[in-house]
Amino acid sequence: MNRQSLASDTFTLSGDQVNRLRQALSIVIDQALLAQRADYGRNTVDALAESEEFARAQLARLDEALDDDGAEAEDSGVAERQRRASYPLYRAV
Q: What is the mean pLDDT of residues 62-77?
């Protein structure tokens, strides 16, 4: 293993839990790509490639599910009720 790859990295995740998971999966993808370029054996590189593919598939699946849930909320009127609930209340004087 290359000594330069032992440097520590710090990641800060923000947003709600789903957004944090999306960020973590993106980090997994980036780190797997970086590790594939390092000086590891063929078997390790294969495992890293599989890890990257799995993280990409999970991220795509999560994005699709979020899009589907958003479309369902629009169709059922839930999204409109949530938007209206966030409007400030005004009182006519």
A: 88
Torsion of CA 24, 29, 33, 35, to 10 degrees: 40
Q: 32: burial class by Cβ within 10 Å (0-12, 13-18, 19+)?
A: buried
3-class DSSP assignment, residue 6:
helix
Three-state DSSP state, 87: coil
The pTM (predicted TM-score) of the whole model is 0.72
**Torsion angles phi and psi, residue 27, rounded to 5:** -65, -40
Query: In 10 A of CB 25, how many CB atoms?
Result: 19
